[in-house]
Design goal:
about 800 residues; alpha+beta; ten-stranded antiparallel β-sheet; six-stranded antiparallel β-sheet; binds alpha-D-glucopyranose
């Protein structure tokens, strides 16, 4: 059952009832200022770091789940009836409710008793504030006297401390109120140089800054006393819970509509100009005032909104496709790239499932995010690559995560996830193919951010590959270290202590556990490295990488094949993992995907056999499960994977991130039907009608869907921040539709289901616009054999690089039927 519908023309998802199975989120802002907003206006805002610079409070895991947000209250001053136009937190009956989640904005509103109130929330591009533009309309035949209350609850900056350290926090809260603007200044008097503000375009009739004064003792957000009585009390917070509330009175003629603007922003002052007058302890507001005045103007807000739309037009314009498949078009043209941008911005820090206090920017995660992001904004991709390289360790290994504010490696999580460094090679290769910017290879970056250790990115890549080669186990396969892509397969861990982190605990010494997954990943990375070396004229390295890749393939041939699929690993004791020899966990999805992607077994039938095994043993109507059978008991020698109940997360859930690898593998073996079939099983839009089962948003991918062994099979969790976004975009656009950037041109090599008759696409590549038409007579399954590029016939499927930037290039691609 759906809870709304797609509006493809406006690129919005329209939610038509507020009681969605879970809060359905959207993101406002970009790199610096980020806001999370649910369909009932829940969520919070932060500046750069979701833990250390949290502007507003949110209560995770509350009942109801979504509490804390950008709440407005409407009060009919004639009848004293009051309600929330975003439904939450009052949940009163509404005549009409709508939430339109769009690209970087959300419009949420409702009507009750003839008063309509809707608010557009967005962050102007480049600004460190969010705008709430509220429209109040009197649909009645008579005059209406309406009070509007706007509220936010401030967070005392460090979200973790804010939620735990009450003995201090109840005493440090401070605010200032000047010219109708509420400034949150907790800790500003001492070491902070930043503050938050909450402003309103109307002269307020009143305000509150102390939560208890606004809500009233023993009351919650669903029944604030100030709203009930129709007046704020002008409270000033001294400690306890600082908040911001404005009260605006409106007198509306029949049919009259009024527009109000609220701003929630983040400001900083130079250390030596914090106070005005100097030394006074009063916040210097001179620098921020003009900004506030500016955005309180309707024209400025309208212009910023136009900018926002234009920015998204440009980003999404990098690739637009037209097929006959609405779920593919909708995801590929709008929502999937949108999710890719959000995952690159937010990494895995802040969502409904990531509390913003835990995880920094993951090395492996961010490199994979880049695969789906690089064509959307190559300049930002470049910056991220160099940031990542700067956290690489001199050994070639990598910190598993880094902190967004400092861009330094996270010591608490450390390193030793042996797949991590190889992803830097894949991400760099994708960047080079997209941009041709070989200069990045000579760009220097330090190791572990240590000044004096700077070396060219090319050298960083070599160390990444070297890291694997220096860590080879008894079967000639890479040692797994703490874990590989599967964080929860902890083969050297042996944890018996309740609550201990599987990821950071001391591993048992002498571990020789090996990973077939890293072997496949290594083959991909070594071949990319060889190609990069060849282009640099470094023939010695090129030869070394080709040889290393071949040797790794030989090791997988000898020890990675189980008879009908690829094994997963060898454990601490040298016993196979992911084998018929095991009673549980016989087949894992990851090595089937990555080994076929690396070309292993493509020419001797093993790839096809592995894919048949996946189809038979792992594929479900809700996607491909990670492992089968799931582990029913805790396995000391396997670690966290077996800590999850069967069917959840890595223990046999449909871990969506891995599914596109199988789509790619199917496409590589020429099975367009298979690739598209897997694609649609987890495509959020295709699952929209299952919203009451799926639970998560129908417009973005979730990390996980409960697997067949779970009692809640089909139920999704961890939506938004997942590598699933990047990989699905790659699988759909580069392998199913086959539009794939290469060093020497744009490959047009689709692998389509038989019934497709072709499609069209527009792709911006190396500064040129490629207008692509694929002609495939329906019913045939052939690959593209020839192209017409601006009318010139070309044998094969590679459209050459543009002869000049700005060129418009017409590409027609024709498939050949292999049977004829
Ligand atoms: C999570 C992590 C990712 C990991 C995956 C599998 O999605 O963010 O790094 O690869 O889980 O464990
Ligand atoms: C947990 C999760 C896994 C995630 C990891 C990140 O182990 O199950 O999915 O990758 O945490 O640290």
């Amino acid at each position: 059952m759906p809870f709304g519908h797609f509006d493809d023309e406006h690129r919005e998802y329209v939610i038509t009832r507020p009681d969605t199975p879970l809060p359905w989120l959207n993101y406002l802002g970009a790199a610096d200022f980020v806001g999370l907003i649910s369909n009932t206006a829940g969520g919070y805002a932060y500046y750069r770091d979701a833990r250390l610079r949290r502007l507003t409070r949110y209560r995770y895991n509350n009942a109801p789940l979504d509490l804390g947000g950008r709440y407005l209250y409407v009060r009919d001053d004639d009848s004293a009836d009051y309600w929330s136009p975003s439904w939450q937190p009052m949940r009163s009956e509404l005549e009409e409710y709508r939430c339109r989640h769009g690209l970087g904005y959300s419009l949420i509103g409702a009507q009750r008793a003839g008063i309509r109130v809707e608010t557009l929330y967005f962050v102007p591009p480049g600004a460190t504030l969010e705008v709430w533009r509220t429209t109040v309309v009197n649909e009645r035949a008579s005059r209406a006297h309406v009070s509007l209350f706007s509220t936010v609850e401030f967070c005392l900056w460090d979200a973790q401390d804010d939620a735990t350290n009450f003995q201090r926090n109840y005493s440090v809260g401070e605010v200032e109120v000047a010219d109708g603007v509420i400034y949150h200044t907790s800790e500003y008097r001492e070491r902070r140089d930043h503050f938050a503000y909450f402003a309103c375009s109307e002269p307020p009739a009143g305000f509150d800054t102390q939560r208890d004064a606004f809500l009233g003792p023993y009351r919650g957000w669903d029944a604030p006393i100030a709203v009930e009585r129709g007046a704020c009390s002008g409270s000033i917070a001294h400690g306890w819970q600082p908040m911001g509330a404005h009260h605006v009175r409106l007198d509306l003629a029949p049919g009259e509509s009024r527009e109000l603007i609220f701003l929630l922003g983040y400001g900083e002052n130079p250390i030596d100009a914090k106070f005005d007058p100097p030394g006074s302890g009063t916040l210097a507001k001179r620098a921020v005032r003009p900004l506030i005045e500016g955005y309180l103007q309707r024209e400025a807000v309208a212009a910023a909104l136009d900018d926002l739309h234009a920015q998204w037009d440009e980003v999404l314009g990098k690739l637009q496709v037209r097929t006959d498949h609405e779920h593919l078009d909708r995801m590929v043209n709008t929502w999937n790239p949108y999710q890719c941008v959000v995952t690159l911005n937010v990494s895995r820090s802040a969502s409904l499932f990531e509390s913003g206090v835990g995880r920094g920017i993951g090395f492996r995660d961010s490199n994979q995010d880049l695969l789906g992001f690089v064509h959307l904004d190559p300049a930002r991709a470049r910056e991220r690559l160099l940031d990542l390289a700067a956290t690489q360790l001199p050994s070639g290994g990598a910190y598993h995560q880094y902190q967004p504010l400092t861009k330094r490696g996270n010591d608490a999580v450390g390193s030793g996830f042996n797949d991590d460094p190889l992803w830097l090679v894949l991400a760099t290769a994708a960047y080079l193919k997209e941009t041709g910017d070989a200069g990045i290879l000579d760009e220097v970056a330090p190791y572990d951010n240590a000044a004096g250790s700077e070396q060219a990115l090319y050298e960083h890549l070599q160390r990444a590959v070297g890291y694997t080669l220096e860590r080879i186990g008894p079967h000639g396969l890479p040692l797994i270290g703490r874990a590989d892509w599967n964080d929860c397969l902890n083969l050297n861990c042996f944890s018996e202590t309740p609550g201990e982190s599987f990821q950071t605990t001391e591993n048992r010494p002498g571990g020789v556990a090996e990973s077939v997954f890293i072997a496949g990943l290594f083959v991909l990375a070594a071949r990319e490295s060889a190609e990069i070396a060849q282009r640099r004229g470094d023939t010695a390295s090129e030869a070394r990488y080709r040889r290393a890749a071949d040797e790794m393939v030989a090791a997988v041939d000898a020890h990675g094949w189980d008879g009908a699929w690829f094994r997963r690993a060898y454990d601490y004791f040298g016993r196979p993992v992911g084998s018929v020899e095991n009673d549980e966990g016989q087949i894992f999805v990851e090595p089937q995907g990555i080994c076929v992607m690396a070309g292993i077994g493509l020419h001797d039938g093993r790839a096809q056999q592995a894919l048949a095994s996946v189809r038979e043993r792992l594929a479900t109507p809700h996607g491909i499960a990670l492992v089968q059978p799931a582990f029913s008991r805790y396995q000391l020698h396997l670690g966290e994977i077996s800590s999850y109940p069967p069917g959840y997360k890595e223990n046999g859930g449909v871990f969506c991130h891995t599914n596109p690898w199988l789509m790619i593998a199917e496409a590589m073996t020429g099975n367009g039907e298979g690739a598209m079939d897997y694609y649609l099983r987890i495509n959020p839009s295709a699952r929209e009608t299952l919203s009451d089962v799926h639970l998560c948003e129908p417009y973005v991918y979730a990390q996980m869907i409960a697997g067949p062994e779970a009692p809640t099979f089909g139920e999704a969790k961890n939506s938004w921040l997942t590598g699933t976004a990047a990989w699905n975009l790659v699988a759909a656009t580069q392998w199913i539709l086959g539009i794939r950037p290469e060093h020497d041109g744009l490959r047009i090599d689709p692998c389509l289901p038989a019934e497709w008759a072709g499609f069209t696409a527009t792709r911006i590549f190396r500064g040129a616009t490629y207008r692509i038409t694929v002609h495939k007579p329906g019913g045939v399954v052939g690959r593209v054999a020839r192209l017409n590029v601006d009318g010139v016939p070309i044998v094969g499927s590679l459209a050459p690089l543009p002869s000049r930037p700005g060129a418009e290039i017409e590409v027609e691609a024709f498939t050949a039927n292999p049977a004829t």
